[in-house]
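Action item from last week, closing it out:
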Amino acid sequence: MKLTREDFRNYIKDYNDDEIFYRDLYFQEKNHPETFHDYCLNLDRQFISNHRLFVPELQKEAWYPYMQEKDLFGDLTGNIMFSKHYRYTPIFDHEHEFFEIICVYNGTAHTTIQGMAHELHTGDICIIPPHTTHSIGIFDDSLAFNILVRGSTFQSTFFQSLTADSALAHFFAHVLYRKTEGNYLIFHTFDDIRIRDMLENLYIEYLGHEKYSYTFLHSMLIMFWAMLLRYHENDIESILTKDTGSGSMTEILNYLNRHYQNATLGSTAEHFGYSTSHFSTLIKEGTGQTFLQIIRDIKLNQACRALRETKLSNHAICELVGYESPEHFMRTFKKAYGITPGEYRKKHKI
């Protein structure tokens, strides 16, 4: 049975038994620290075990410090799970093999990612990649929930929304998959009702367990990523965008996608207020590619689209994407794809 939007809002807002347990535990420790240990010793151990609750005072070892995909998803048909973050849950560091997307529905949540503290607010969507140590804490009436996604499903849904924008795809892949500490992406969507409604629809679909629900969820997740990118690709925070000065990396890449035909390293650096050498380093650190590699990939991506979708000649396409000569275009294209533009057109003719 599908929930109404009002049903869902009551579900996410109302305290369940586990949250009440955690809330009582939190205030007992805060208000009566001198008797807290004895309080914990007298808790109902069977209730704690049955509900898989975390009581640090009674825990002798780390609580779920690492989870594999098989531990969470098991033999489930679906690759996407939703879970409400229980308010007042004791903070614990953990990591896992799958992606976690923290969605702050209302209020404020505090998270730590690889030792770096972040304060998330209403509308924030925080993507935490696999193998990243993190924690989250909510100790008031704020509301948040998690979307847990298998790595392969995240790859196929998130990056499917970026096929027409290779520069951004490289940037996001670099942020989410590079082997450094503190990787994350935060979309600051603020009070965007479109994003809020889509999140509600996703969660309602998940809770409804209707026929073909997982097919719906997969398609809706693609739409959700597309909405984030359409409306908030310039409202992104990551380890690589916190100190970019006058332009975020996504703004720089969007600029290059609009001006790739004649953009140079010097002109783009000047546009964003950087020296050429500093801007070159910033691009390399932010995307894993050089400026020339990014421009090349954008040009070739646009050329491939023209070959697939139009009847323009190679010479016309060469001029369209900004190559100096058809010969240069042919050499670059064949080096990148192993075939000529004409062979590519025959192979991908619509």
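Closing note: The longest strand covers residues 99-106.
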